[in-house]
Amino acid sequence: MPSRSILIVALAVVLGLVAVWLGNSYFTGVQQREVEIAEQNKLARIVVASQDLAFGAPLSSQNVRLINWPQGSVPVGAFTTVEEATRNRVALRPMVIGEPVLASRVSGTNARASISANLPAGQVAYTIQVSDVSGVGGFARPGDVVDILLTRNMPGQNVTAGDKMTDVVLHAIPLLGIDLVADENKSGPVYGKTATLQVSITDAQKLALASQVGILSLALRNVADKTPPVLATVLPRDLSAGRVLARAPGAPMLASTAGTSAPARPRIVRRAAPAPRPKAPAAPPSSTMTIIRGTNPTDYEVRHGR
């Protein structure tokens, strides 16, 4: 019995070793065939995501793999080995299955999910203060495109606190994050007190100045909308649907609805001059006679022609 047990154990070990050898040979052969096919068809080997990757997800051999890729269209920054792509790196942007893993979309070897590594050349990240209302009610999320509005007091003398004006400071600006949230895949409203924007250094200077002279707010745009907007300063008088016409002192105020061709004018009705009244006929010439009775004089009119 002991010799039989030893024989069975030895046979199992041999079969296990054979299975391991066959498995290694198979996978090695598959990889070798893929390399040969790539060389024959002028294909390159690059690293892609083998599963969906979220922002900040560590890269490992479990979520990336090598595939053949046309050599003439290899993306800039693509990794050619799994070892290099997974060397203590994390995803800086969400990636889907089959998407190439690029150096611009992953962190350095310090495994720090830094936005600075994802900024294009000549661009900076600048943060402005927003509220639930000025931040588009929480519906502006990382990856969206926004316009920056500035509301401030009107310049000049004899202006009151209610004399405001609103301008579009910057147009079509990428939104990098709201507060500490930079994950583009985060669903639902994101409420925050700050918004981080991708701008040029000159635009960052504009935002720094604008934040000191007025209130900044965001306007969410359609990412696919490339139509250049018609920009204009909006004043309080532009808030009315109609416009008030100038009037003379004491005259009633007239208003015309926006979109009409010309303002309505009051119709002036001229009254005819009143006809002259007929003159009374002239009285015939007459004279006066005074008769004194005692001390009381009395005048009497004497008409001619009688």
Name a few traits of the molecule:
306 residues; alpha+beta; Type Iii Antifreeze Protein Isoform Hplc 12; five-stranded antiparallel sheet; two-stranded antiparallel sheet; 3 helices; 11 strands; 18% helix; rod-shaped; SAF; Pilus_assmbl_Flp-typ_CpaB; Flp pilus assembly protein CpaB; RcpC_dom
String of helices and strands:
HEEHEEEEHEEEEE
Largest sheet: 5 strands, antiparallel
Ranges where pLDDT stays below 50 over 5 or more residues in a row are 244-248, 251-266
Radius of gyration equals 46 Å
In DSSP terms (H or I, runs of 4 or more residues), the helix count works out at 3
Q: Provide the residue-averaged pLDDT.
A: 78
Q: Assess the beta-strand content as a share of residues.
A: 25-35%
- Topology, number of strands: 11
Helix content: 10-25%
How would you describe what is shown here?
By secondary structure, the protein is α+β, with helices and mostly antiparallel strands. Among the domains are: 41-113, Antifreeze-like/N-acetylneuraminic acid synthase C-terminal domain (Type Iii Antifreeze Protein Isoform Hplc 12, Alpha-Beta Complex); 122-238, no CATH class. The protein contains three helices and eleven strands, in the order αββαββββαβββββ. It has helices at 2-40, 82-85, 201-213; strands at 43-49, 64-70, 123-129, 145-153, 164-178, 194-200, 214-221, 242-244, 255-257, 286-293, 296-303. A five-stranded antiparallel sheet has the order 3-6-5-4-7, with helices on one face. It has a two-stranded antiparallel ribbon with strand order 1-2. A hairpin with a 2-residue loop joins strand 10 (286-293) and strand 11 (296-303). The longest helix has 39 residues, at 2-40. Residues 244-248 and 251-266 have low confidence and may be disordered.
